[in-house]
């Protein structure tokens, strides 16, 4: 394992590496479903069958899934195949990748049901502003997938909804929940973004065509974008919920439809 815990990982397991690198706490009691929500695809059958799949490896090991947590400075422990849970423990604190910097104020906290409040710091290593924006958007999608999986009490992963030839950021395996994440800002911080307004309209239209019980869009970065869109066009939206996920981890409803009543009842 790289001694600084910040060697980049590429490939299908890189989302887990990226998530663990910016996870603030030093211990994460995770379910297999939560790991799948971050990865965006189901774990292989061997992960649910063999303890050895979760084994930490030596520096020369070539298993890419183990590299995803070890190169982020973590080890996997206490794997319980029957409960489908494990514990990730940090052994090295990750530093920003070479050429990058830690983003200021990028702390995201999500209070999960039945778990302690968990704090995640969004940080993107950047060599140019476009790379920074892309990296941050990708991390936001991963975080939104995790938060919304908890909100709807079901594992969400990228996929298609029956009847719509479009891959959405978040879909449930039974097709009952579908949504997408958008990380938008105003033009030059002030002006309305017509191109992004068009994207929102397109996704509302696509989601309304989906044969799902719950449909949603979750926004990050600048809340004014979805708010301004709803001011203009919200009356035309029938069954798509709008959320805003703030930098301090609060999931806020901007427009409610068939919402998570059980969640409100528990508060």
Task: Write structural notes for this entry.
The chain has 267 residues and is an alpha+beta fold. The protein folds into two domains: 14-95, no CATH class; 150-266, Trna Endonuclease, Chain: A, domain 1 (3-Layer(aba) Sandwich). The protein has helices spanning 14-21, 32-39, 64-70, 129-151, 194-209, 224-233, 261-266, and strands spanning 27-31, 74-80, 85-90, 107-111, 117-121, 156-161, 164-172, 177-184, 214-221, 241-245, 251-255. It has a six-stranded mixed β-sheet, sandwiched between helices. A three-stranded antiparallel β-sheet has the order 1-3-2. A two-stranded antiparallel ribbon has the order 4-5. It is globular and about 55 Å long. It starts with 13 loop residues before the first helix and ends with a helix.
Task: Please summarize what this structure is.
The protein has 267 residues and is α+β, with helices and mostly antiparallel strands.
Q: How many domains?
A: 2
Number of strand segments: 11
**What is the name of the CATH class of the largest domain?**
Alpha Beta
**Low-confidence region ranges:** 95-134, 258-267
CATH topology grouping of the largest domain:
Trna Endonuclease, Chain: A, domain 1
SSE order: HEHHEEEEHEEEHEHEEH
Gross geometry = globular
Q: Tell me about the largest β-sheet.
A: 6 strands, mixed
Proportion in β-strands: 25-35%
Overall structural class, as computed from helix and strand content, comes to alpha+beta
- The tally of helices reads 7
Gross CATH architecture of the largest domain: 3-Layer(aba) Sandwich
Identify the quaternary structure here. single chain
**What would the average pLDDT be, to the nearest integer?**
78
Radius of gyration: 19 Å
Distance between the termini: 43 Å
Major sheet strand order: 6-7-8-9-10-11
Helix content: 25-40%
């Amino acid at each position: 394992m790289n001694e600084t815990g910040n060697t980049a990982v590429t490939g299908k397991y890189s989302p887990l590496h990226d998530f663990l690198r910016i996870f603030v706490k030093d211990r994460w009691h995770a379910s297999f479903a939560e790991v799948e929500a971050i990865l965006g695809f189901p774990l292989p059958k061997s992960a649910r069958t063999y303890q050895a799949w979760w084994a930490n490896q030596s520096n020369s090991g070539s298993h890419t899934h183990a590299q995803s947590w070890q190169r982020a400075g973590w080890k996997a422990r206490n794997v319980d195949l029957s409960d489908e849970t494990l514990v990730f423990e940090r052994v090295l604190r990750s530093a920003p990748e070479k050429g990058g910097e830690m983003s200021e104020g990028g702390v995201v906290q999500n209070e999960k049901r039945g778990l302690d409040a968990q704090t995640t710091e969004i940080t993107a290593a950047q060599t140019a502003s476009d790379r920074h924006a892309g990296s941050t958007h990708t991390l936001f999608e991963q975080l939104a997938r995790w938060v919304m999986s908890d909100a709807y009490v079901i594992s969400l992963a990228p996929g298609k909804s029956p009847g719509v030839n479009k891959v959405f950021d978040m879909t449930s395996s039974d097709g009952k929940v579908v949504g997408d994440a958008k990380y938008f800002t105003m033009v030059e911080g002030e002006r309305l973004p017509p191109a992004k307004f068009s994207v929102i309209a397109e996704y509302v239209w696509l989601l309304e065509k989906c044969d799902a019980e719950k449909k949603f869009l979750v926004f990050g970065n600048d809340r004014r974008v979805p708010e301004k869109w709803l001011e203009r066009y919200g009356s035309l939206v029938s069954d798509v919920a709008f959320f805003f996920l703030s930098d301090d981890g609060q999931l806020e409803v901007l427009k409610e439809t068939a919402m998570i009543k059980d969640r409100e009842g528990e508060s």
